[in-house]
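Take a record.
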Amino acid sequence: MKTLDKLSIGESGVVKSLTKKDLALKLIEMGCFPGEKITLTKIAPLGDPIAISISGYELSLRKDEASTVVLED
């Protein structure tokens, strides 16, 4: 199972599912829903947070939030 927090800068993936129900609604409201393409664009110097490009805009997520986004293989 590949998750968003495991990508390297420039890598992309397609959202397959969201594992935490309490966080899923927040992520869906920000455009992170199944079938959407995500590209990791930046990683903070200490590794957290990360920035992703999704739905034409850039979004910052903590690594623990990103670990709940499962990507298609």
